Amino acid sequence: MGNVKEIFISVDPQESRVALTEQKRLEEYYVERSSDTRMVGSIYKGKVTSVVPGIGAAFVDIGLGKNGFLYVADIIEPKPEEEAILEEGESPAKENTREEQRHRRSKIEELVKVNQEILVQVVKEPFGTKGARLTTHLSLPGRTMVLMCNDSRLGVSKKIEDVQERSRLRAILSKLRFSDEAGLIIRTAGAGKGEKEFARDVRYLSRVYQHTKRVASRAKAPACVYQEYELAQRVIRDSYTEDMNRIVVDDKAAFHRLRRFLQLLIPGVKVRLELYRAEEPLFEREGLEDQVAALFDPRVELPSGGSIVVEPTEGMVAIDVNTAKFTGRRNLEETAFQVDKEAAVEVARQLRLRDIGGIVVIDFIDLDLPSHRRELVKTLETALGRDRAKTNLVSFSEICVAELTRQRMRQSVQTFSRQPCPYCSGRGVVKTALTMSIDALRQLRRAIKTTSSKTLELLVHPQVAIRLLQEDRPSLSALESQYRVKILVLSDPSLHVEQVKIQASG
Fold this sequence. Notes:
By secondary structure, this protein is an alpha+beta fold. The protein is 34% helix and 26% strand. The chain contains 15 helices and 25 strands. Helix 10 packs parallel to helix 11 and helix 13 crosses helix 14. It is globular, with a radius of gyration of 29 Å.
């Protein structure tokens, strides 16, 4: 039957969810809340509010309350969606050298002025106290190509490495130029595609480009001149391929929007788009709810019986690989090698699913054989190659610790759907019953000294109450005898394990 690829779209009033599966296994997962502003990819006509030479940046009002920031590097050099070799320019080495020289020469105050109106595109969402990161080099993504609004050069993604394929794509590109002021880059998804598919994409992109130009010419800053598509359309634009078996959506209005979008994006292509009508929720019917819930578990089991543990920290994400119950059939080296290869594939999958960005450190099981280490690196690089976000394997040590970076553009699923535990303050642990028993006795001693009551009620969690009334009963009796008071220990299931309440009785 082959590899079954499907897209499932579930729409609720508060949020939309999109799941991409292969053989019913979750491979990509996206969530968008109805209250969210679609920012990344959107283009704004903004007004410069301040220029800060010390950090080489300008702050731009784009009408969202919090000003975006524009670095000098994002004015000087185009930042296409994928790194590409631009066919109508200098060699990459020379380009890099010239870019460094421009960075050293250029000053932000020479490039933009306060109150200047400027077209910018959001490349990163606001995060914490930071506003959105902006660029003046505008790009519009299609299925197989990216249109660069202010750069007329043509290019092919660096990830397409085959020399003959690059030559074929360059020949097609030269026929497709439609504007002297806009350029085109063939994305990785364009490998193997024919001139017909590219021409279709160019027609779509040119319509979007011309419409954006018209809106921008009439708009008064600050204003949005190009709104990025909603979640379902974005995922289909970026991820749909002709070998996709079907797209299923459970909302009638969303179904009709998607049908119109597909006619615009890929006219003439037959797509199996289905409206789900059953009573049972779509994600439950397809076995996706449990897979989504597993994204919040730190431990992920591997097919062999090994596991990985994903632990976000303040500055990075640490991933530990364990053999767990798997011992292998031959020797420790072979066991470790098999678990490590499975872990490399699963780590890449979890990075996509959880949308983890920033620095990632992976502690693989040590491998003694250099050939095994080389193959593990190759497996990891291949698995990371499936990721649309830019990843960079920075290092891989002899003790099998890998360090990589992954592009962060949006908040991860974990960030916006979870909050720090209000009981443990995000520590992930709480005090034991013994610790709380000792703490309760200390609080009792302080309370006895500040009250004239001869009877005190001590309200604690049931586990703490059992500890106080059994193992620590002698300590309670000693307090009663020393201060001539009566202490009533009361079990209160509504209390958190770390809560203690003391009140006078009678």
